[in-house]
């Protein structure tokens, strides 16, 4: 079990009560927790809750209520706390805290501590959807992400204010698992560049309509996040999705299969590993009408042409150049999953195909979990079973690295 110390900063949001559960989850994972609460947070949860849970003093103010000597004695407290802890996690991070961190304000203990802290910072924002989407908040998040902080984007769902949308604090167990991964993370992809494709593509039918598919991009984004956290430089070629880019990943946004092909071929030479999770459209309309197609009483037929097969093209290119790049494809199937994956492995000259069954409701498209089987060029079939996409992402990378060694594909 890990033994790490973390500062848990609690902001004044409706989700402050969930921070108590987060403290408990982190302690169960072996973390020592020092809680710092903003004044607003104490309106929602009493410091006693955290003191009782952690068995430690909870920091609640910059200038204690005691004598001048007491205040002086604690005046360097924020520096001491900052130096003694391995990671700073702020959950819930209010819109106000994001703004104050982004602009370097130091007008209470938590914001002063933030400036004095040199380790990794994890921020879990939670707020009303409109507050989250406000350009001011989004700009602050971008600034903080640009500083190398880890942002755990809010979940979507019903909110305390009666609306529904992005803004919920993710489940404490998920935040705790994220932190555990962060502090125990491996550096086995340091110095590597990895290309990941994710999401669906959109193939226009006219200026206002398009064909797409149910891919949410979650698996690809999890792969990109896992690779980046293990030290890789990640280029993420992404179709249109509703999820935030993982920390430290370069996103190349595309719409159509043709655009995805161009972006992949452009970035291919610099990448040692190519992970193609995107659900690229198989067909598109070759001649797109310039004007919106009008509704009539007549039946409308669409003649669709196949889109470029990017995976096969990359496979051929790697073979032609004998470049030693490792190629991983994904196969979402509704039947004969493993047999289809083996066929794809051969046909597209992949080193590994990650097969997932998308027939069920609980795994596959749009959900957080997947159930996958790997088939490899080394003729192995590896069952990874069912887990969250983020957990599977690390397991897939583990197997990819083993396979690369076995195939002597290190370049
Ligand atoms: C009932 C109530 C619920 C609130 N919930 C949130 C919230 O979920 N997220 C948020 O960013 N602000 C929320 N606020 C606003 C913050 O409490 C306010 O911006 C405060 O100044 C934040 O202080 P802090 O960032 O120092 O913790 C809420 C306010 C009230 C009165």
Notes on the protein architecture:
42% of the residues are buried. Helix 1 (16-28) runs parallel beside helix 3, helix 1 crosses helix 10 (172-183) and helix 11 (218-229) crosses helix 15 (389-407). The chain has helices spanning 16-28, 41-44, 47-54, 68-73, 77-84, 95-103, 109-116, 129-133, 135-146, 172-183, 218-229, 257-267, 310-321, 337-347, 389-407; strands spanning 4-10, 31-37, 87-93, 121-125, 150-151, 155-158, 164-168, 193-198, 203-206, 209-211, 233-238, 250-253, 273-276, 283-284, 305-306, 326-333, 352-357, 369-376, 381-388. It folds into two domains: 4-183, Flavin prenyltransferase-like (Rossmann fold), CATH 3.40.50; 193-407, CoaB-like (Rossmann fold). The protein is 36% helix and 24% strand. The model has no long low-confidence stretch (mean pLDDT 90). With 411 residues, it is of the alpha/beta class. The strands form five sheets. An eight-stranded mixed beta sheet has the order 12-11-8-13-16-17-18-19, with helices on both faces. The chain is globular. The site of flavin mononucleotide (FMN) has 15 residues, from helix 6.
């Amino acid at each position: 079990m890990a033994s790490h110390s973390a500062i848990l900063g609690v902001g004044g949001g409706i989700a402050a009560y969930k921070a108590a559960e987060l403290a408990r989850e982190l302690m169960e994972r072996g973390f020592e927790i020092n809680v710092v609460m903003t004044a607003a947070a104490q309106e929602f949860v009493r410091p006693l809750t955290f003191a009782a849970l952690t068995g430690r003093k909870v920091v609640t103010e910059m200038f204690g209520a005691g004598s001048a000597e007491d205040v002086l004695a604690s005046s360097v407290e924020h520096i001491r706390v900052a130096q003694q802890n391995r990671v700073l996690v702020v959950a819930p991070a209010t819109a106000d805290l994001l703004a104050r961190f982004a602009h370097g304000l130091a007008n209470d203990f938590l914001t002063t501590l933030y400036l004095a802290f040199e380790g990794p910072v994890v921020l879990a924002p939670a707020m009303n959807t409109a507050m989250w989407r406000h350009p001011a908040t989004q700009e602050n998040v971008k600034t903080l992400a640009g500083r190398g902080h880890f942002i755990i984007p809010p979940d979507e769902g019903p909110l305390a204010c009666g609306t529904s949308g992005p803004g919920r604090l993710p489940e404490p167990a998920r935040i705790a698992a994220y932190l555990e991964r962060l502090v125990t993370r491996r550096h086995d992809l340091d110095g590597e560049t990895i290309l990941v494709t994710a999401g669906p593509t959109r193939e226009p039918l006219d200026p206002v309509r398009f064909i797409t598919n149910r891919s949410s991009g979650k698996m690809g984004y999890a792969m990109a996040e896992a690779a980046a956290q293990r030290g890789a430089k990640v280029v993420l070629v992404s179709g249109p999705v509703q999820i935030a880019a993982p920390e430290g990943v370069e996103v190349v946004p595309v719409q159509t299969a043709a655009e995805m092909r161009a972006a992949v071929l452009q970035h291919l030479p610099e990448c040692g590993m190519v992970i193609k999770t995107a659900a690229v459209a198989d067909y598109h309309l070759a001649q797109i009408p310039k004007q919106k197609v009008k509704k009539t009483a007549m039946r409308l037929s669409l003649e669709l042409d196949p889109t470029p097969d990017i995976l096969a093209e990359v496979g051929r290119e790697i073979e032609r150049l004998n470049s030693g790049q490792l190629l991983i494809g994904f196969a979402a199937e509704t039947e004969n999953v493993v047999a289809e994956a083996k066929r794809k492995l051969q046909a597209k000259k992949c080193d590994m195909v990650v097969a997932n069954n998308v027939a069920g409701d609980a795994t596959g498209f749009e959900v957080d979990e997947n159930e996958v089987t790997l088939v490899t060029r080394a003729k192995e079939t590896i069952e990874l079973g069912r887990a969250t996409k983020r957990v599977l992402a690390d397991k897939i990378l583990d197997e990819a690295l083993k396979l690369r060694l076995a195939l002597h594909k290190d370049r």
